[in-house]
Design goal:
The chain is of the alpha+beta class. The chain has one domain. The chain has eleven helices and six strands. The strands form two sheets. The chain has a four-stranded antiparallel β-sheet. The protein starts with a helix and ends with a helix.
Length: 214
């Protein structure tokens, strides 16, 4: 439980770190970067936690655009499967009205309490947080570069965030959500249930594209 507590916080911190944009505000020198979409956090988190879905998205992207190229696509997908990530790394998420979802308030509160993140939002008429902004502090960037990036247990998350950023980082939260909803097993998972894995579907698509088995 303790390991999972810190793993969740590390994962969200790295999503904010890798997918945020530079930010400058003379009124608050603590802030270095900003991330403005909770939907995108949830959708990237899903790709980290479900290696099979990430593989399926890479295969589909190759099929649609040719990027990654043939060699890169095969290398990435075969590496993930040969390392048995679908069995060892899958960390299930439940499906709610807007797809895969995990409560983030506790995680963001913790990251804020240790000066890694500053959270800002506006209140709606119903007193709900809207227009959420997640600011990464200079202190967080220093910790990532000088500390976390050298911790062996954190390396997999750094590498995975870099991979997702390279091929899907330019998509907004809605675009990522739409891509995920286009997958039948994801879309048809009943509300409140854990989203069904698609390891076998990835193997089928890989064979269809490359005439080779994973």
């Amino acid at each position: 439980m303790i390991a999972n507590f810190y793993r969740e916080r590390l994962r969200i911190l790295l999503i904010l770190y890798f997918f945020s944009e530079n930010y400058e505000d003379s009124s608050d020198s603590r802030l270095a970067r900003v991330f403005r979409s909770e939907v995108k956090i949830q959708k990237i988190d899903f790709l980290i936690r479900y290696p099979s879905y990430l593989c399926f998205e890479l295969l589909r992207l190759y099929e649609e655009t040719g990027v990654p190229n043939l060699h890169e696509t095969k290398e990435i997908v075969t590496s993930i499967f040969h390392n048995k990530e679908p069995q060892l790394k899958t960390d299930e998420m439940k499906r709610f009205f807007y797809g895969a979802y995990e409560e983030l308030n506790g995680i963001i509160s913790y990251l804020t309490s240790v000066n890694l993140v500053v959270f800002k939002s506006q209140k709606s008429a119903g007193l709900k947080d809207i227009k959420k902004e997640y600011f990464i502090t200079h202190y967080a960037i220093k910790k990532n570069k000088e500390g976390l990036s050298t911790v062996p247990a954190a390396q997999w998350y750094f590498i995975r965030c870099q991979l997702i950023s390279q091929y899907f980082g330019d998509l907004n939260g809605s675009a990522l959500k739409n891509r995920q909803y286009a997958i039948e097993e994801y879309r048809d998972t009943p509300l409140g249930n854990y989203i069904t894995d698609i390891e076998n579907q990835v193997k089928t698509k890989y064979y269809y594209l490359f005439n080779q088995s994973l």
